[in-house]
Amino acid sequence: MNAWDKFVFRLMENLAAPYSILSRVLPQVVVLVVIVYISSSVYVYYQHLDWISAVYAGVSLVTTIGLYSPDLNSMPVTEKVVLIAIMATSVATYASVFTGVVSVVSKRYLWVDARGRWRGSHLKGHVVIVGNSMEILEAARKLDSLGEEYVVLTNDQELASRLGRDDVIIGDPTRDEDLRAAGVQSAKSAVVMMTEDNESLLVTLRIQKLNPPLRVVVGVKEDTMKDVFETAGADLVFSIRRMAGRIMASAAVSGNVGGYMLDASGLGEMSIGVFYVERGSKMDGSPLSKVPEGVIPILIVRDGKLNPYFTKETEVRAGDTLVVLGDPKNFPRVKEATRGG
């Protein structure tokens, strides 16, 4: 989606939001209109007012402003009884309806939700983030940095406000209706991160029912649930706690840990190490074949440029940054080989 398309899309979101808000207060407004109509009809029938004057009098009665006050002595008993009944009913109804309308219109999260629902129902090929776990904040920030379009579906208003965006639907992640509103059926992938694993499992099953081919990535708390989620249709399942713990442990073993690769392809769990080649070190002027065993070179950064194309005979120079993949327990040997004498 180019810049112009994004501008038009945002404009349509803001234009569509009022209609969504109106649909929320429409039943209350209809009740209020019916009460005004009934009271106006009484004035037309008994006072022989024209309809504009009658509506004016009806609104005055319903709102208790009292701008129109007919002569009570000349009013028929039936009219008095009917107006008393209308007034008794309308006062409480008007107060309730007016308070409800103001409450709906003044809540910012409802406007955000309205824009999010319009966006989710019109986007295609986007990412749907579902859940109420705080890790969602980081997932959203990463998608922002990648320039990816996404919609967040959460039942946590505080989390929605912290996201600070209009791409949020505040609803129930386990409801088909809200998942459809987020565009699950037209998305390219979904990220599920609920605070409880059983809720994440239910959401995964719902998503699979609505769009079986969709790629689903799930973050779980308990690693023992991995098989259950894979059976439910999740494409990638990882333990957030386990990942964080292992990264910290790897960093404790070696200060050169720059990343972590999940066990997603049966290759095992490996860390990414980043090493600066110092002048006079063993690796300065040596081919990559001299890199200590137990790690695999995956990238050379030279003069600020990434070079992923090399062979085992490629010479490493002082000033290069060597990026390797492997078990962090082997990183100290790589660090020693890249340290200057």
UniProtKB/TrEMBL annotation:
- Its domain of life reads Archaea
Ranges for domain RCK N-terminal come to: 124-238
The answer to whether keyword Membrane applies is yes
Domain RCK C-terminal positions: 259-340
Give the transmembrane region(s). Answer: 21-45, 51-69, 81-105
Give the GO biological process terms: potassium ion transport
Single GO MF descriptor: monoatomic cation transmembrane transporter activity
Name the Pfam families for this protein.
Answer: TrkA_C, TrkA_N
Which InterPro entries does this chain map to? NAD(P)-bd_dom_sf, RCK_C, RCK_C_sf, RCK_N, Trk_Ktr_HKT_K-transport
Q: Which UniProt keywords apply?
A: Membrane, Transmembrane, Transmembrane helix
In its UniProt entry, what is this protein called?
Answer: Potassium transporter TrkA
